[in-house]
Specification:
- By secondary structure, the chain is of the alpha+beta class.
- Helices cover 47% and strands 30% of the residues.
- Strands 2-3-1-4 form a 4-stranded antiparallel β-sheet, covered by helices on one side.
- Strand 2 and strand 3 form a beta hairpin.
- Helix 2 runs antiparallel to helix 3.
- The longest helix is centred in the N-terminal third of the chain and has 13 residues.
- It starts with a strand and ends with a helix.
Length: 97
């Protein structure tokens, strides 16, 4: 299932991680683990954030995805199912049947 993960990073924790090089390491590890179809990095709600859109085939992966963000960056995260335009068209077409 295609999902979107948005992480809001704790400012002080991520400042320390930035200075130590840990922030880049965590983001690189996330990219390798998730193999996202899209990833974005920028400010949100007054702080650092990152957003990944990826295929989560098994919900048992959730702890291994979320814990590095919690433990190493003090993040608050949201994960929700999402659709691209093709998925939406397919879903809406199914409503007609």
């Amino acid at each position: 299932m295609r999902v979107m993960l948005r992480a809001h990073l704790d400012t002080q924790v991520s400042n320390d991680a930035l200075k130590s090089g840990q922030l880049l390491k965590v983001m690189q590890e996330m990219m390798e683990a998730l193999k996202p179809e899209a990833s974005y990095f920028g400010p949100s709600e007054g702080g650092r954030s990152c957003t990944f859109v990826f295929d989560m085939q098994d919900s048992s992966r959730l702890p291994s995805i979320a814990e590095p963000l919690f433990e190493q960056l003090g993040a608050r995260i949201e994960i929700q199912p999402v659709m691209n335009a093709e998925d939406m068209k397919k879903g809406l077409a199914a409503l007609k049947h």
